[in-house]
From TrEMBL:
This is Raffinose/stachyose/melibiose transport system permease protein. It comes from the Bacteria. It is a multi-pass membrane protein. It comes from Faecalicatena orotica. Coiled coil: none annotated.
Length: 288
């Protein structure tokens, strides 16, 4: 099919112009401030070269933020993708209550990050939190879940996974429902087992859907900010900082250029990760 006959080239002019005016130009101009001394204490902005970028890489909190960001992104991507796949397989069956169950699984996705953060902050509260009450039932002492780095990272990860699992289920379920029943029936007639059906028919056909799910989870996991800001504010100290909270803190203290520099470095990391995964997923799909 010749797509040129369906979509004339001139139809792309307006979207491209809008994209350039409202995204490319503001982003480019904004990133230019990363190479200046822009802050709340000076009126005349001057060029400082790579000074702010060098400060980003020499800041002690940046490695902490990088590790935390990678943990959030990795945990979210793996667990959300796997659980989303498992629950989607269950909900794809002919269950009488499947519509109600689908609604229940998707409910967390409609909550704002503020609501989810407050809910899980209450659950992981040291004194009267539900999690600590359950822990005490088994004879253990109270745990300061949000008072130390790794327990706080764990609590935030659980909250983020709970909030985004519904999206993964819906996306994967859409992919499963796009698989033609004729393929399944033909394979069953040929004597294929359940595992063989899944491995050789279902999984290859929904790999594009799985790749979209992984890419979204990875990118939004790398962009973790809202739940961290609500639950810990990047603390205790700087133990749960991410690139998002670093940018927020720099902006709040009037160090605007440093905030933009952190954003620039983070954007480069996001682009590299997205492009690398896209290339990997294309090879994976072609191999299938």
């Amino acid at each position: 099919m010749d797509t040129k006959k369906i979509y004339p080239r001139y139809m792309m002019i307006i979207p491209v112009i809008v994209f350039v005016i409202f995204f490319v130009l503001p982003s480019t101009i904004g990133y230019a401030y990363a190479f200046t001394d822009w802050n709340s204490y000076v009126h005349d902005v001057s060029f400082v070269g790579l000074k702010n970028i060098i400060e980003v890489f020499s800041d002690r909190t940046v490695p902490i933020a990088l590790v935390n960001t990678l943990i959030f992104a990795g945990a979210k991507t793996i667990i959300v993708t796997v659980l989303g796949f498992v629950f989607a397989l269950i909900l794809n069956r002919q269950l009488k209550t499947r519509n109600a169950i689908r609604t229940v699984y998707f409910i967390p996705a409609i909550f704002s990050a503020l609501v989810v953060g407050l809910i899980f902050s209450a659950l992981f509260q040291t004194r009267n939190g539900t999690i600590n009450l359950l822990v005490q039932m088994f004879g253990a002492g109270k745990i300061q879940w949000l008072g130390s780095r790794w327990t706080a990272v764990f609590a935030i990860s659980i909250a983020e996974i709970w909030r985004n699992l519904g999206y993964a289920i819906v996306i994967t379920l859409a992919g499963l429902q796009s698989v033609s029943p004729e393929y399944i029936e033909a394979a069953k007639i040929d004597g294929a087992s359940g595992w063989a059906l899944f491995k050789n028919i279902t999984l290859p056909l929904i790999m594009p859907t799985v790749n979209v799910n992984i890419l979204f989870s990875l990118i939004y996991g790398l962009k973790m900010f809202d739940l961290v800001y609500v639950m810990t504010g990047g603390g205790p100290g700087h133990d749960t900082e991410t690139f998002g909270t670093l940018m927020m803190n720099e902006m709040a203290t009037g160090r605007y250029a440093q905030s933009v520099a952190i954003n620039l470095v983070f954007t480069v990391i996001l682009v590299i990760v997205a492009v690398a995964y896209q290339k990997f997923s294309e090879r994976w799909e072609n191999a299938e």
